[in-house]
Design goal:
The chain is α/β, with parallel strands linked by helices and 232 residues long. The protein has one domain: Spore Coat Polysaccharide Biosynthesis Protein SpsA, Chain A (Alpha-Beta Complex), CATH 3.90.550.10. Helix content is 44%, strand content 19%. It is built from eleven helices and eight strands. It has an eight-stranded mixed β-sheet, with helices on both faces. The longest helix is centred in the last third of the chain and has 16 residues. It is globular and about 45 Å long. The termini are far apart.
Length: 232
């Protein structure tokens, strides 16, 4: 049996400071046969130019992580898709751990996460994220979700909504199987907690998620969160 191939898909929007370190970290994976695709959602800076020489492909789509990740998957050649945020670093063993999980029967999964930042309490936030994910079978984009091509296509990819696309996709996937919860940790930036404060960020995310589950519009929530501009 041939070893499954891996495509790493990174949605970006105005990430000139962080995209190079993330892509440089992936060059070893590329040498091992992984494909790296960057999907831009309308950057107005040098993000795209910086990414071109460090990726196998750079493409564009409408803004929104769900749409961008779907666009990357449509271009990807791998048997397994790994969706990586532009401020998140993978452990060096990521490709082999993913392939091992798939070979053991998993159709999708995610990594544990650790949060890098200068404020206290981020370790507890990461612990709670990982614990909640194991308990509920729901993964967030910060945890580097991976999925087989077959399962991704079977479920139609990510929903084309501007926020909570990872939560909804996880719910669809969980109906088929629980995720492989890998203990190896990805390292994600604590910038949103540093910018808005630890407690305020936690309460905001809980409030947004509760309202989403109660039926609030993802577009309205995204505008409130600041991910989409307010209408004028």
């Amino acid at each position: 049996m041939n070893t499954p191939t891996l495509s790493i898909i990174i949605p970006v929007l105005n990430e000139p400071a962080g995209i190079v370190p993330v892509l440089e970290r992936l060059q070893g994976f590329r040498r091992q046969g992984a494909e790296v695709i960057v999907v831009d959602g309308g950057s107005t800076d040098a993000t795209v130019e910086l990414a071109r020489s460090l990726a196998d492909g750079v493409t564009s789509s409408q803004r929104g992580r769900g749409r961008q990740m779907n666009a990357g998957a449509a271009r990807a050649k791998g048997d397994v898709f790994l969706f990586l945020h532009a401020d998140t670093l993978l452990p060096s063993s990521a490709p082999s751990l993913i392939i091992e999980a798939i070979d053991n029967g998993a159709s999708w999964g995610r990594f544990d996460v650790q949060i890098e930042g200068s404020i206290s309490g981020l370790g507890m936030v990461a612990f709670m994220m990982n614990w909640r994910s194991r308990l509920t079978g729901i993964a967030t984009g910060d945890q580097a979700i991976f999925v087989t091509r077959e399962a991704f296509l079977r479920h139609g990819g990510f929903p084309a909504i501007p926020l909570m696309e990872d939560i909804m996709f996880s719910g669809w996937m969980r109906e088929e199987a629980r995720p492989a919860c890998l203990k190896a940790k990805v390292t994600t930036s604590g910038r949103r907690w540093e910018k808005h404060g630890l407690l305020r960020t936690i309460l905001t995310m809980w409030w947004l998620r509760l309202r989403f589950f109660l039926g609030a519009s993802p577009t309205a929530l995204a505008r409130e969160y600041g991910y989409l501009p307010h209408e004028t």
